[in-house]
Specification:
Helices cover 33% and strands 26% of the residues. It is α+β, with helices and mostly antiparallel strands. The protein has one domain: 2-Layer Sandwich (YaeB-like fold), CATH 3.30.2310.20.
């Protein structure tokens, strides 16, 4: 069996996680925010074993740009041969636009 694929986070993804927690904090539901972030991180950790398990992002239809849906969020990542890079973590109803 091959080793785990390294998973890293783009600054934009870290900012997204911080924003999710800040939103739930502002709504008086900090524990809910922490629980959701733990669930997101758990889904991301699985990508180390199954990097191609996410679907190709439909807005772009580029093989290496994939996503995992963890309602109500989309975990968007770049999947290269030797690594996974988490790019964005957004609410699933949003249309993805890259700069």
């Amino acid at each position: 069996m091959a080793g785990k694929t390294p998973v890293s986070f783009a600054e934009s993804a870290v900012s997204d996680l911080e924003g999710i927690q800040a939103y739930y904090d502002s709504e008086g539901a900090a524990a809910t925010g922490r629980r959701l972030i733990e669930e997101l991180v758990s889904a991301i950790e699985r990508l180390a074993d199954h990097p191609k398990s996410g679907r190709v992002v439909p807005e772009f239809n580029i093989e290496y740009l994939r996503e995992v849906i963890k309602p109500p969020f989309r975990i968007v990542y770049r999947c290269d041969k030797k690594k996974v890079r988490i790019v964005r973590i957004w609410r699933s109803e949003r249309i993805l636009k890259l700069p």
